[in-house]
Amino acid sequence: MNNRIVPSMPVRRLQNYAYCPRLFFLQWVEGVFQENADTVAGDFAHRRVDQPSAFDLESAFRPGASIRSVELSSERLGLHGVVDLVESGEEGIEVVDYKKGVHWRNASGKPVAKDYDAVQVQGYYLLLRDNGHKPVSASVYYAESKTRVQVPVDEESLSRCLNLVQQAQQLAESGVCPDPPQSSSRCLKCAAYPICLPRESLFWKTGKDTLPGPRVPPRPDGVDGEILVVQDFRARIGLRGGNLVVERPDDKLVKAPLEQIRAVNIFGAAQISTQALHELMTRDVPVSYFSPSGRFVGMTHGLPVSGVDARRGQYRLFDDPDLRLMLAKEIVRGKIHNQRTMLMRNGNASEQDITKMADLRDATSSAESIDSVRGIEGAAAALYFGAFSTMLCDTEVSSWDWNGRNRRPPKDPVNALLSLGYSVLSKELTGICHYVGLDPFLGFFHSPRYGRPALALDMMEEFRPLIADSVVISLLNRKELSAGDFVKSSRGVFLKDGARRSFWQAWGRRMDTEVTHPCFGYRMSYRRMMDVQIRQLWRFCRNDCEKYVAFTTR
Fold it and tell me: For residue 170, with 0-12 CB atoms within 10 Å meaning exposed, 13-18 middle and 19 or more buried, which class applies?
């Protein structure tokens, strides 16, 4: 029996449903929203009508009155919303909704409202009528063309609107995300396109790519923003106007507009004010905390998207041994493939080792338990790190004291960099898991353990060699770091504070590097690729696709 309780629906979401049921589901049921150029322009077009008028709604509907931003609700209809503008003229009350862009034209060239925009203003018309008022007309004002277009409010049109309300509510109650639309004309203009991934979702579900049109990388509009790194123990991060300000008692270090910040990383004892933290959480900007040596400690983040269905599915998958094994095998297959690719591209490993790694990669498919998968992963790691030094310049290998992988604590500069890279990578993936609505602490290959983001560690495996290891190799081979940039102590070897700037520069370069998607053929940055992979897992947890496919590169 379905025990979902469908709350009152915003009329804005009714417009989403008329545009695309999948968009409606993602934005209302799952709470997923992605800004793009169109949504920003829409907010700008609303800037005036979003300021409420100082009127008493019950007495203000007299000829010539105009009321902006009127909030209404109806339990009977199951709707609520804010009407942009209500005007009272000699013929009666008119409901007006503001939209960016331009109107459509019919066959005779007459301006008409877009069908999904018409549904929204009809919803407002019904709300006003259900609250005891008697509107006589409705229209949509298109800001770009500066045209007000009348919308039909006859009983047939209003009945269609009410049917759409019921259909949307039934879809929300079902909890089943609709398949992507078969036409891509609206998809490419949709704000949720980078999240919806229509072509990719259909491929993951059916194994076929049947959508018309070109393959377009699901890249969000605009730049991703900058990472603010603070590691001076005397520093304090505060909020001043629309800027983050980093100060020391004797100096102002950084002033950065909030719009340009996509993440804040704090090392050691640096401080951040409550006001700054609140604003960053409101903007969904994660703040990550690291120990002075670079160990990832934790993060603060705004509330995640609803994601209830995905998390429930994630918990069910964890309790299914066969599905856990299937995921673990694919995760390790992808990792070994990418480790082997790194050695073939950058190193001089023996043909015997390369062949053994290919055999281990292929052996994952026949593994009968997660312990067997772990054994395969460990054997491949031994081969990989045994040949790791062949990817470093010959003249530098001896100075780094490399003698294989070690940790807790790292005993040489190479391991210190690898540990820092893995720590930062786990932080990045923990944030994405949290953002899409998955539980970062419940993994499938890595066992849950107190304080360990096991799912982020799962997702990290396929990216470890391609991102973290690549950053380390680049830093050392390009001589961006020297032995003097590390400090050796009884607690291990760590990168000095002043040398972390080089690390973050190399990290940014790698994350912005574009790579070809193995299934879809288009190119995207590693940063975006991690997001796409976790959204694929999100769909798998929701039972929207048959399997998870690890990211691998040639």
Answer: exposed
pLDDT of 11 over the 70 cut: yes
Class of domain 9-25+35-168: alpha beta
In CATH, the number for domain 308-541 is 1.20.120.920
Q: What is the residue extent of each domain of the chain?
A: 9-25+35-168, 226-300, 308-541
- Tens digit of each residue's pLDDT (9 = 90 or more) over 271-301: 888 888 888 888 778 888 887 766 777 777 7
Task: Give the number of other CB atoms < 10 A from CB of residue 362.
Answer: 13
Please choose, from the candidates 230, 273, 233, the residue with its C-alpha nearest in 3D space to the C-alpha of residue 253.
230
Superfamily name and number for 226-300: CRISPR-associated endonuclease Cas1, N-terminal domain (3.100.10.20)
Mean pLDDT of 349-356: 89
